[in-house]
Amino acid sequence: MATSKIANELLLPQVLTAVLELLINKALLLNVNKDSSLQDVSGKTITLELAELTFPLSFTVGSAARVIVSSLTDCSDCTISTSVNTLKKLKAEQQITQLVKQGELDVIGDVKIAQQFAAIAQSLEIDWQTELAKHIGDVPSHKMVQFGNKLTNAVNKHSTQLQADVSEYVVHEKRLVATNGQITHFKQQVTEVANKVDTINTRINTIFSLLSSKK
Amino acid sequence: MSSPDQNSQANDASVDKTMPADNSTTHFGYKTIEKDDKISMVAGVFHSVAKQYDVMNDLMSFGVHRLWKRFTIDASGVRPGNKVLDLAGGTGDLTAKFSQLVGREGQVVLADINSSMLNVGRDKLRDKGLVQNIEYVQANAEYLPFEENTFDVVTIAFGLRNVTDKDKALRSIYSVLKPGGRLLVLEFSKPEHELLNKAYDFYSFNILPKMGELVAKDGDSYQYLAESIRMHPDQETLKTMMDNAGFEQTTFKNLTGGVVALHKGYKF
């Protein structure tokens, strides 16, 4: 409640919607896979209610193929209630049903619209080299993108290595955290013990009922 | 530049900001003028600043006016198919968003008393490709040229303080709203904290006119802006005025510490 009040005082919903609107429309403008899919959802609104945010985010495709982002909830064609982590899993359309079953996702309204919006998001692809070349020329942009790719690869490689080293240290050397396999094994053992306790409980109840009937 | 006396006059609660001394006069900033003269004097201000209006808004408010307008849109509850009147709509910031939210079945009327502002707004919206559901009307808020019960939503952003007879304008708006429709008034107001009030006064009377002189080559218009803000009814007074005009469930929300307030009222 207090967080919501502070967010509203600082106009955070408006700041976030303004930034998102700017980024989305810029991305749509630079998208190399321009097709008519945006026209299919023209006038439609999808609303995201994220657990991490105290306000909803509504995305409306307006005329002139622009997306309007607001905190309006009155006119949504589809409302998705979820968390940021689950949202990442939503990249695969077929996961929607599974996530709904697991209770990680709640969809109210037309699911088809959610799928159409997801498809548009997945089709976004920006040719950064071409965009950069418009400003600084072909050769410098090629060199910069090449350098950027090398840097990204190096960072990814080092971060993977770092992750492996940290997990080795934490799990095996210091034994601070259990592995997935150990947790699963522990869960199995707990289930087995619970089953045995249930069986014994049933037997005791049976014995008690026999004794009471003999009396 | 205003004198300290003028500032204290504006902040003095005993000064009646809604009703001038007699029925034939009104305020133009701190000046008391004949009612009939106000329209042409305000028109002079906006003819002068129309072309630099957007740039000046961004400079003066450090871009925050965009967030205040977004807040208004979020509070409007506008739906596809709605009919919206953006009164004193100026350069069309609200109209641009409303036009896309109401869709093809809806309609937005951008109304302003000033032809220069309307022309700048029309050019800007057309450049954005927004043409299909927007109408432009040059109209005085006191005498709206629309049938009764026409609009689902009426907004007036940073315009009411320039209107000569605010009560008459509110009654006129009430008349054109559909039953169930809502009015949103976004307007400068009275800061909630004394320290903020002082800083705001210093900024308004010392920096703002100089900015206006530098960018729009018109310091006097921005001096008027600062004075007109101080003479505008505070939050509670405006709420009472809306109640008196017939609006129900009237509320207001202070934004940026009360520098701006969004008033909302319904017609049932």
Description:
- The complex is a heterodimer of chains A (215) and B (268).
- Chain A has 2 domains: 125 residues, SCP2 sterol-binding domain (Nonspecific Lipid-transfer Protein, Chain A, 2-Layer Sandwich); 86 residues, no CATH class.
- Chain A is built from 9 helices and 5 strands.
- Chain A starts with a helix and ends with a helix.
- Helix content of chain A is 64%, strand content 11%.
- In chain A, helix 7 packs across helix 8.
- In chain A, strands 3-2-1-4-5 form a 5-stranded mixed sheet.
- In chain A, strand 2 and strand 3 form a beta hairpin.
- With 215 residues, chain A is an alpha+beta fold.
- With 268 residues, chain B is α/β, with parallel strands linked by helices.
- Chain B has a single domain, classed as Rossmann fold (3-Layer(aba) Sandwich).
- Chain B is built from 10 helices and 9 strands.
- In chain B, strands 5-4-3-6-7-9-8 form a 7-stranded mixed sheet, sandwiched between helices. A two-stranded antiparallel ribbon of chain B has the order 1-2.
- Classes of the chains: A alpha+beta (215), B alpha/beta (268).
- The interface between A and B is medium-sized, with 18 and 26 residues.
In short:
The complex is a heterodimer of chains A (215) and B (268). With 215 residues, chain A is an alpha+beta fold.
Helices of chain A, by number, come to 9
Spans of chain A of 5+ residues with little confidence (pLDDT < 50)? Answer: none
Order of helices and strands of chain A: HHHEEEEHHEHHHH
Content of β-strand of chain A: 5-15%
Distance between the termini of chain B: 45 Å
Mean pLDDT of chain A: 85
The name of the CATH topology of the largest domain in chain A is Nonspecific Lipid-transfer Protein, Chain A
Helix % of chain A is 55-70%
**Shape category of chain A:** extended
Low-confidence stretches of chain B: 1-16
Total of helices of chain B: 10
Task: Please name the two chains that share the biggest interface, counting residues whose Cβ lies under 8 Å from a Cβ on the partner chain.
Answer: A-B, 18 and 26 residues
Could you name the CATH homologous superfamily of chain B? Vaccinia Virus protein VP39
